[in-house]
Task: structure prediction
Amino acid sequence: MSDDSNRDELVIAARRARENAYAPYSDFAVGAALRFADGTVVTGANVENASYGLSLCAEAAAVVRAMNEGHRGGLEEVAVIGSGADPVTPCGRCRQLLFELADLGGTDPVVWCASDEEAVSARLSDLLPRAFGPGSLG
Ligand code: THU
Result:
């Protein structure tokens, strides 16, 4: 499979996940999709709360689901899609959560930051340089 079709497939999975977003307060639905080395794709969407600060991002939902399904590393590619015209980049907390999962397998995933119009890519290490991780605890 070409890189392009990998990307398209993952962005489509993130867009499909976005349909399950619960975002009545911000009205900003986000979907995320994680692709692992074994080909598995795990998705998530943001889940907001009437106590606004408790809201969970799409990437966090996907990371938690993946780890609860037993994934520990092997994270090769990520797609995140928001609701605006501009591509969404993961928030700081989500970069950290993605890093922990990736670092367990020593990968530096490509992150596709998407809108319905376009997708731009970045390495996780560019989004979160000099990351604090499992190895930082000594
Ligand atoms: N959001 C995400 O799901 N992922 C991000 O990386 C950025 C922000 C969500 C949180 C909140 O539900 C909504 O977008 C508006 O901030």
